[in-house]
Amino acid sequence: MENNRECYHCGPNHPELTIPLFAYGFGFSPTELDEAGRTDAQRYTDLVEASCSRWEGEGLPSREVDELTGRPTGFRTQRLPIDQSGESYTMDTRAACRLPMGAVQDKALGALSFWTQPNSWHHFMGDHVITFTALPLSAGRTLVRTTWLVNKNAVEGVDYDLERLTEVWKATNQQDADLVAIAQQGAQDPAYETGFYSPYTEGLVEKFAAWYIERLKDYLA
Question: Nearest CA to 109 among 100, 98, 121?
Fold first, then answer.
């Protein structure tokens, strides 16, 4: 849950994902950015504003809605810009499926992302949808299930290439699994001590913890 809710690990660990995805949308510490990083972060901020204005002008709700705490079904949603062509979570940021998901012809729709508490994430793009769910199997094991959805009339090998469609998130899922395994080992070490969440890079982690505590209080009331 923590890994999914911060992206300061993304730059050094997700070379495929950070081609289309900006990590800045999940929090960053301004004091830790060099000049190139500050320029890139400002480019992202400007792109969010320009893209949201354009999308909402076309009747597509896009700006962030955050209700991660204070309700049993906490959620956060926002249409995030995709870098370069702005089309899809692929290695070249271009659409992976020839047939669009809906009636909108504009391919550069970014990714309408919908995160729910506690364990599912959904990314809607013009050409395909990616959904994730994390299912706890035991105290130390979790099943992560990823599903890629394309237009129901799309034909594999004709309208899309399966490897190209899935390669970014297949790589990212494995990288995250390796990171989470290391974190799990560290947390089980007798020398491990808990610390505070970063107000810059772990704000969404903090909201998950707050939501979890709310649910425990309601359950035990």
Answer: 100
Is pLDDT of 197 > 90? yes
User: For the chain, which domains are there?
Assistant: 3-220 (3.90.380.10)
In tens, the pLDDT along 87-106 reads 999 999 999 999 999 888 88
Strand partners, 144: 134
Q: Are 29 and 200 in contact (CB under 8 A)?
A: yes
Residues in contact with 64: Cβ distance below 8 Å, sequence separation at least 6, in sequence order: 76, 77, 78
pTM score, whole prediction: 0.93
Three-state SS across 74-125? CEEEEEECCCCCCCCCCCCCCCCECCCCCCCCCCCCCEEEEEECCCEEEEEC
Q: Is 152 left (phi over 0), alpha (psi -120 to 50) or beta?
A: alpha
| 193 three-state secondary structure | coil
Question: How do strand 129-138 and strand 75-80 relate by DSSP bridges?
Answer: unpaired
